[in-house]
Specification:
The structure holds two protein chains of two kinds. Chain A is an all-alpha fold. Chain A folds into two domains: about 100 residues, Helicase, Ruva Protein, domain 3; about 60 residues, no CATH class. Chain A is about 65% helix and about 0% strand. Chain A has six helices and no strands. In chain A, α2 packs across α3. Chain A is elongated, with a radius of gyration of 33 Å. Chain A starts with a helix and ends with a helix. The relative contact order of chain A is 0.06. Among the domains of chain B are: about 170 residues, no CATH class; about 140 residues, no CATH class; about 100 residues. Helices cover about 60% and strands about 10% of the residues of chain B. In chain B, α18 packs antiparallel against α19. The chains are: A mainly alpha, B alpha+beta. Chains A and B meet through α1, α5 and α6 of A and α9, α13, α14, β3 and β11 of B.
Chain lengths: ~170, ~675
């Protein structure tokens, strides 16, 4: 009798775990692989959140998207294949980050390009300033390179100093 | 009252047009009466905008449901506190609020400088009036908040009517921070109009450049501080209300608030080059122009719907007006620059690559690259749609990957920049200033690595934060030691005294320290964890060292909403610690629901518990728990940044203490010791 009870308890506990597992599968991914892939998409319920972070309870969109990933991973589909099927179904707006191919490469390249161009510009400016500094030290009193005369500039400066007060 | 407010707005527009046209005439004729009358018109414009704003608030407080805007954003049971916030909860009201805050700045400028800067102020008045005309045009003709409820009758006339109650305020906005977050952010946006107006005015008036910097430094810092506080309050609101466990989602509207902050920060640094060395005048003028343009762009992004955002409450076709305004600004600024650029010639050149000047250049480079990267990422979906026909989303992972390295570079410069001397830094000085901080940072990094920290960016971030903290501490220590040796006081009192002697410099260091704390908090995000579970009363879930036991649930009806509350017991090391009450609120008037997160916050970590609602499959409450390390440091950092800005805004304290404490050498003049002391610790810095 006791043995039967223990066995029943074990079956009940196992059933509970299975039920709990099934329930949880609706809101969380089973495998790290599925979680990783889910993190690369946006939820299509217009919340603009990453799929695995969509926190709308009852959001049928994220639930069905996550289920699809779960199933695909269980079937042994590759990440690339899952991505392709999602893009086919939802369009390119499903990406949480632009893919590193085609026109999207521009988005990835731009910050680095800005940094390189900016750094080159800064180095150029520093070099030019230093060069002018050395030249002006050598040719003190040479003609003013600007279109307006030094006298006019000095007059404007003294006018500004006179007119403005802190 | 709606007619009164509407009339006040119309009259304000008339006054602004007079201030603008009359101001231009005053610039050419220099007639004193015309100058005075245009200034008075500027003041009258502001007074009328105040009147209109208070009229709208009165409509909210008196539950006047004949006004369409009041019906859309309020109801009788809305607490008084939120009736204030209802003003800026929609398109029309928020644009009026823009005008209101701008008017606060404009009237302050016109009154503070009413007897000063005689030649410059008419130009400033014209620029400010021009900006006001744009917003007043929107307030009057495009998005008037004073429209009455009505419908066309069969006879072709219009029947006005009054509703018994309103639709209520958006639940997401019914949170205390929402009462202070938008005013702060808007004060930042509008505040940058003042340096913009002075910069453009100085260029138009052919002022060689440095004076407008002195005049607007405090205005710029105030605007920057408001922008900082606004951004952080927005982040905290997102954290505590939206219930997704984070504080920054790189939403287009969040990005829009960050853009002018980045260029404004660059400007606050590069103006020092102009003040100290007369350099980067062209750059500074364009930085201010860009900052103002980005403020307008931010307002445009919030309202146009050109990029999808969670802040979709204010979308409309108003965007084309902002595009037009931005084009006008660019044309005016560019024309003024081309015409008068010769007056912006640098007075000095660079003496050495290793100098404060170079560090400012790189600081500006990093901030600008970050700004352009955020801007291009925000607008990339639009561009990709134009070019390829398909819209490609750019979400959080992209922005994190791009901006984390940029942020670390910036933190590195925060450490080294302030300790480099103007003109040239010697090798000895480099060793003296950076030797110890570098060593401390490396040892700390090794210790963290040995302790198991393997996240590369977080490790580098912590090392850099320690490096910057060490450099700032050394600066305070050196200065305080000098004062201590001469003043018979302890080191802390000496450091306090030191900060008040050169508020700008040491206030800046305090701001940097605040940024260090914010970066520490951000680095903690790499270690976030979360668990979600359907829970029945009596069931538990485990997250980190905490066990969460769902005890029970209850509901409480409030005046404006009903709340369903979970009672969650937090257990740590088998000892009950506290009860948390995450809840969901249901607002009956507009049938919307909202989250109220329960957070147990310590310096080490935040236990963040969300009641996410009932599972559609099991009907059991879904509890989502997060363990977010170091988040509190971000909010503490924000407080330190504000404190530092306030210190930097204060005037320097006179060296009374030094004069009384220094031993007078025989035969020395009384003023000499103060100068000597000052020279001791001011060398090469500021």
């Amino acid at each position: 009798m006791i043995r039967f009870r223990r066995r029943s308890a074990r079956i009940a506990a196992t059933a509970l775990v299975v039920v709990a597992f099934c329930v949880n599968s609706a809101i969380a991914q089973k495998t790290p692989q599925a979680k990783k892939i889910g993190g690369k998409f946006l939820c299509m319920c217009t919340c603009n959140q990453v799929l695995t972070q969509c926190n709308h309870v009852g959001c049928t969109t994220s639930t069905s998207m996550l289920k699809k990933i779960d199933q695909a991973v269980a079937q042994g589909d590759s990440e690339e294949k899952i991505t392709q099927s999602f893009v086919q179904e939802f369009g390119t707006t499903v990406y949480a980050e632009p893919p590193k191919s085609g026109i999207s490469l521009v988005a990835w390249a731009m910050p680095t390009v800005y940094l390189i161009i900016g750094a080159v510009l800064v180095v150029f400016v520093i070099a030019r300033w230093r060069k002018v500094s050395v030249m002006s030290a050598r040719t003190a009193g040479a003609a003013h390179p600007s279109h307006i005369s030094q006298e006019l500039l000095d007059r404007a400066r003294s006018r500004a100093a006179r007119d403005t007060e802190d | 009252m709606d007619v009164f407010g509407s009339f006040a707005l119309l009259l304000a527009l008339v006054c602004a047009v007079y201030a603008f046209v009359g101001g231009i005439a005053a610039i050419y004729t220099r007639h004193p009466l015309l100058v005075k009358s245009t200034r008075q018109a500027g003041i009258a414009t502001c007074a009328l905008i105040f009147t209109a704003t208070f009229s709208l608030e009165y409509l909210f407080f008196s539950d006047n449901f004949s006004a369409a805007y009041v019906v859309s954003h309020s109801n009788r049971s809305l607490p008084t506190f939120y009736k204030v916030a209802a003003l800026w909860s929609g398109q029309e009201g928020s644009l009026l609020f823009w005008s209101f805050l701008l008017s606060v700045y404009v009237i302050s400028v016109l009154l503070v400088y009413r007897n000063k800067n005689g030649e410059l102020m008419p130009y400033v008045g014209v620029v400010l009036a021009g900006v006001q005309i744009f917003f007043l045009t929107l307030n009057n003709f495009v998005a008037s908040p004073f429209k009455s409820l009505g419908m066309q009758n069969p006879a072709g006339g219009f029947d006005f009517f009054t509703r018994i109650d309103g639709n209520g305020l958006n639940p997401l906005l019914q949170y205390p921070e929402m009462v202070i977050h938008p005013p702060n952010l808007y004060s930042g946006y509008t505040g940058f109009t003042i340096p913009f107006a002075f910069a453009l005015a100085a260029l138009l008036a052919r002022y060689p450049g440095e004076k407008w910097i002195h005049l607007t430094r405090k205005w710029t810092m105030i605007a920057w501080c408001f922008q900082t506080v606004g951004i952080l309050l927005g982040a905290h609101w997102a954290y505590a209300v939206l219930g997704w466990g984070g504080y920054w989602a790189w939403d287009p509207v969040e990005n829009a608030s960050l853009l002018p902050w980045l260029t404004g920060t660059a400007f606050l640094h590069s103006v020092m080059m102009q003040e100290k060395r007369g350099m980067m005048k062209v750059w500074n003028v364009w930085l201010v122009f860009t900052t103002f343009l980005l403020c307008i762009l931010g307002t445009f992004l919030t309202r146009s719907g050109v990029v999808s955002s969670v802040h979709a409450f204010a979308q409309s076709s108003i965007g084309s007006w902002f595009v037009g305004f931005m084009i006008v600004i660019v044309v005016v600024c560019f024309t003024a620059y081309v015409k008068n650029r010769d007056y912006l010639k640098s007075e000095n050149q660079l003496d050495s690559v290793v100098s404060r000047e170079s560090s400012f250049l790189f600081n500006n480079l990093i901030l600008l690259v970050s700004c352009i990267a955020v801007l291009s990422g925000t607008l990339f979906p639009v561009f990709s749609e134009w070019i390829s026909g398909s819209r490609i989303s750019v979400g959080t992972p992209f922005f994190n990957k791009v901006n984390i390295p940029i942020g670390l570079l910036l933190m590195f410069l925060t450490g080294i920049g302030p300790l480099l001397a103007w003109r040239k830094t010697s090798t000895d000085s480099l060793k003296r200033n950076f030797g110890w901080p570098l060593l401390v940072a490396l040892i700390s990094g090794a210790a963290l690595f040995a302790a198991g920290m393997r996240q590369f960016y977080s490790l580098v971030c912590f090392m850099l934060c320690i490096f910057v903290t060490a450099t700032i501490s050394m600066e305070f220590y050196r200065g305080a030691r000098v004062i201590k040796s001469r003043g018979n006081m302890n080191l802390f009192s000496a450091a306090y005294e030191l900060a008040w002697r050169n508020t700008r410099r040491y206030g800046g260091y305090i701001v940097h320290m605040g940024m260090v704390l914010i970066f520490i908090g951000l680095a903690g995000a790499a270690f976030n964890r979360d668990v979600q579970k359907d829970m029945q009363p009596g069931s538990t879930m485990q997250i980190g060292p905490y066990t969460l036991l769902l005890q029970s649930s209850d509901s409480k009806p409030e005046k404006n909403y009903s709340a369903e509350r979970m009672i969650v017991e937090v257990i740590k090391n088998n000892k009950p610690m506290m009860l948390l009450y995450p809840e969901r609120r249901f607002f009956t008037t507009n049938e919307q629901s909202g989250t109220m997160v329960a957070i147990y916050s310590t310096l080490l970590e935040d236990l963040y518990v969300v009641y996410a609602g009932q599972s559609p499959e099991t009907n059991a409450p879904v509890i989502h728990a997060y363990l977010n390390p170091l988040v509190k440091w971000i909010w503490l950092g924000g407080v330190i940044v504000v404190m530092g800005t306030i210190v930097a805004l204060m005037p320097n304290r006179r060296n009374v203490f030094v004069l009384s404490a220094v031993q007078q050498p025989a035969g020395a003049t009384p003023a000499a010791p103060a100068l000597q002391t000052s020279a001791t610790y001011r060398e090469g810095h500021d």
